[in-house]
Write a structure and sequence with these properties.
single chain; 120 residues; mainly beta; 10 strands; globular
């Protein structure tokens, strides 16, 4: 069974930075592309960034372009999302999952997520 655990979320002031982490089990990290999503109450979960299984191909959503970096080191089974110059609109619950930008409505297994709150 696939299982994810996200961490690293925090309460930060605008302009701050965070590094989110995702660990998981039940699948092969080395052959699985991964995606970070985020969700605010009342809205659909949206893709933030995605990375191919090899790490050679990445996608970053326009809303965080230039401020987010996704990485999946080959030496550890962890997915990272570095967020810089955070804005209040980045406030959301952040999740990770398998696949490259899969539609969230097609995914039925999620972790608990990690909360990012950006506020002064």
């Amino acid at each position: 069974q696939v299982h994810f655990v996200e961490s690293g979320g925090d309460y930060v002031e605008p302009g701050g930075s965070l590094v989110l982490s995702c660990t998981g089990s039940g699948f092969s990290w080395s052959t699985t592309p991964m995606t970070w999503y985020r969700q605010v109450p009342g809205k659909e979960r949206e893709v933030v960034a995605a990375i191919s299984s090899s790490g050679d191909s990445v996608h970053v959503a326009g809303s965080v372009a230039g401020r987010a970096q996704i990485s999946k080191p080959t030496y550890e089974n962890v997915l990272y999302l570095q967020l810089r110059r955070l804005k209040p609109e980045d406030t959301a619950l952040y999740y990770c999952n398998r696949g490259y930008m899969r539609a969230s409505k097609n995914i039925d297994s999620w972790g608990q997520g990690t909360q990012v709150t950006v506020s002064s």
